[in-house]
Design a protein that fits this description.
Bound molecules: zinc ion
Strand content: 5-15%
Strand order of the largest sheet: 1-2
Structural class: mainly alpha
Oligomer: single chain
Distance between the termini: 41 Å
Order of helices and strands: HHHEEH
Number of domains: 2
Number of strands: 2
C-alpha cells in the first residue's frame, strides 16, 4: 500500500497510479496466485507501518523516517519496510487460519 505515498510522479500520472494501476496490480496478483495454486488472502494494511512487529506497540512516532523503525514500547530497531512486512504476514496468517477454522468444525 505504501507505494502510493512513496512514489512521486508528475501530476498527470498521479491519477493513473491511484486508479487502474493498482486495480490492475491486484488483478494480476490474483490471477498469478490462482495459476500457481498459491493461497492468497487480503488484509487491512492500516497501521502496519506504525505497529511494532515484536511487541505490538502502536505509535506514529515508531516510524522515524522512510527507512527507520524504532519502537517506543520495547526499543527494537528495524528497517521500516521489514517491520511492516512482518505485520502484514502476521495478519495474513490470522485471516488464513480463521478461514480454515471456520471450515473445519471443532471436535470436542
Ligand atoms: Zn516493540
Amino acid at each position: 500500500k505504501g507505494i502510493r505515498n512513496r512514489v512521486r510522479l508528475r501530476k498527470p500520472q498521479r491519477v493513473a497510479l491511484h486508479s487502474w494501476a493498482f486495480a490492475q496490480l491486484g488483478d494480476f496478483i490474483v490471477y498469478t496466485a490462482k495459476r500457481a495454486g498459491v493461497p492468497l488472502v487480503f488484509v487491512d494494511p492500516a497501521y502496519t507501518s506504525q505497529t511494532c512487529a515484536e511487541c505490538g506497540h502502536v505509535d506514529k512516532r515508531n516510524r522515524v523516517d522512510q527507512e527507520l523503525f524504532i519502537c517506543r514500547g520495547c526499543g527494537v530497531v528495524a528497517h521500516a519496510d521489514r517491520n511492516a512486512s512482518h505485520n502484514i504476514a502476521t495478519r495474513g496468517g490470522s485471516v488464513w487460519n480463521a478461514g480454515r477454522e471456520s471450515r473445519v468444525p471443532a471436535t470436542p
